[in-house]
Design a protein that fits this description.
Layout: H1 5-28, H2 34-71
Helix pairs in contact: 1-2
């Protein structure tokens, strides 16, 4: 499980950054100047890219972690 730990956290970080960029896109609302129009489009495009890909990566690898957690062999408890 160690080799997929890094991609899982990269997916989570990308998902959070995507949410933050989409929040910034929503807060800018209707841009007035050309610079804000450019940032509006950039925040939406990059935010959606990171939101979707990071969320997909974290969801898929999270399912693998969850399956491994439930299927891993447990040490038998010794009772005396």
């Amino acid at each position: 499980m160690e080799p997929i730990r890094a991609p899982f956290f990269v997916g989570l970080v990308a998902f959070v950054i995507g949410v933050a960029l989409l929040l910034a896109w929503w807060l800018i609302a209707v841009p007035a100047t050309t610079t804000f129009r450019f940032l509006h489009g950039l925040f939406f495009g990059v935010g959606m890219l990171l939101f979707v890909t990071g969320g997909f990566l974290a969801l898929c690898i999270g399912m693998v972690y969850l399956l491994h957690f439930f299927k891993q062999p447990r040490a038998a408890a010794t009772t005396k």
